[in-house]
Specification:
201 residues, alpha+beta, Aminopeptidase, 5 helices, 27% helix, globular
Length: 201
């Protein structure tokens, strides 16, 4: 993966935002607490993704402080962290089972979860995706942005569809979680004025 610059400040849309993760004990404790909830683990990491604060720091610190090609940030609501998002350049078409000729020179991908289930279904995730897509398109030159929910995660698929992502393929045997192999959906959002490439193999 090519390096992406970390956020140098918050991206805000009313009460919702994307803000840098500070290298503090409370940041890693918060992430650890989110993964204590089985509803969160079901869609992000699986049952085995429980982690202590120390393990959360080991996993996510380099992403948060700009020492990894993957850049991480907190999703916030009323300036309080409620979830996690990461974004990164796509290096090669095969990472997303795309045809070899697919040009990924301006392709980015993102992953996210809201760690407070009581805030699910309130449109916060959609606003966050809009914020981050605008940042990727206007500040970092993204032409297309990819996201890859599990096939059975209908709530996420609907949410991503509402903010401009379209299903363009099925990712076969894409993710193994707790010993079970799952398919994913490849969803794509194009920057304004960008022409879409054929992703059929």
């Amino acid at each position: 993966m090519n390096d992406a610059p970390p956020l140098d400040g918050p991206l805000l849309d009313g009460a919702s935002g994307v803000e840098p993760i500070l290298d503090r004990d409370e940041s890693w404790a918060r992430i650890s607490r989110w993964f204590e909830d089985a509803r969160v683990r079901r869609w992000y990491g699986g049952e085995s993704h429980r982690c202590t604060p120390a393990q959360a720091r080991e996993t996510y610190r380099r992403r948060a402080i700009g020492e990894s090609p993957v850049r991480a940030a907190f999703i916030t609501h009323e300036r309080a962290p409620i979830g996690y998002v990461q974004f990164y350049r796509v290096d090669a078409p095969e990472e997303y089972q795309l045809p070899p000729e697919h040009d990924v020179s301006r392709t980015w991908a993102l992953d996210l979860f809201i760690g407070e289930p009581e805030l699910w279904g309130r449109g916060i995730g959609g606003r966050i995706i809009e914020l981050l897509c605008a940042h990727l398109e206007h500040e970092l030159g993204a032409r297309e942005i990819l996201i890859d929910p599990r096939v059975e995660n209908a709530r996420a698929v609907r949410a991503y569809g509402r903010v401009g992502f379209e299903v363009v393929g099925r990712l076969r045997a894409y993710e193994e979680q707790d010993g079970v192999v799952h398919d994913g959906l490849l969803m794509r959002r194009l920057a304004s004025g960008a022409a879409g490439q054929n992703v059929e193999k």
